[in-house]
UniProtKB/TrEMBL annotation:
SUPFAM superfamilies membership: P-loop containing nucleoside triphosphate hydrolases
Superkingdom per UniProt: Bacteria
Annotated ranges, domain Molybdopterin-guanine dinucleotide biosynthesis protein B (MobB): 7-138
Name this polypeptide is given: Molybdopterin-guanine dinucleotide biosynthesis protein B
Name of the gene this protein is made from: mobB
Length: 167
């Protein structure tokens, strides 16, 4: 099992989760932390292309196909009839690191920030998920939880580091 600290960023589609994470990663790596990320998607996806050898191998029935090159490697696993992997199972597959950021997985039992933009017209969800420990918003809010300025990634990074006792 990966002994990294794990922290989630959740919110409705279009709230700015990916943009926030993209801004946080270099702030964490600048402090010497090795950061990994798990992103959940509700939509089917494929990183492969029809006609490529790796696509053909999966289509032929291979359970896993690994692509390896000078710059990176990628492992694709076909679930076929298996259930979707749990966050715990996915975390166990990561290489050792200091911090794993998790995008999505709203109902997972891990501390997370709810990214909320009132202009989207979507409700808060933190009342349903006690693992939400703070809210990042682009507008002033009144909440029992800490409210962080969504447009201030350095302050959010510092808050996360303090929360995880990594600072």
């Amino acid at each position: 099992m990966n002994s990294a600290k794990t922290f989630g960023i959740s919110g409705w589609s279009g709230s700015g989760k990916t943009t926030l994470i993209e801004a946080l990663i270099p702030l964490f790596t600048a402090r010497g932390l090795r950061v990994s990320l798990i992103k959940h998607t509700h939509h089917g996806f494929d990183i492969d292309k029809p006609g490529k050898d790796s696509f053909r191998f999966r289509a032929a029935g291979a359970s896993e196909v690994m692509l390896a090159g000078e710059q990176r490697w990628a492992l694709m696993r076909e679930l076929r009839e298996e259930p979707q992997a749990s966050l715990t199972e996915l975390l166990a597959r990561l290489s050792p690191c200091d911090l794993v950021l998790v995008e999505g997985f709203k109902s997972a039992e891990l501390a997370k920030i709810e990214v909320h933009r009132p202009a989207l017209g979507k409700p808060f969800f933190h009342a349903e998920f006690p693992e939400v420990v703070a809210i990042a918003s682009d507008a002033p809010l009144v909440s029992d939880l800490p409210v962080l300025a969504l447009n201030d990634p350095p302050a959010i990074a510092e808050w996360i580091l303090q929360f995880l006792k990594l600072a």
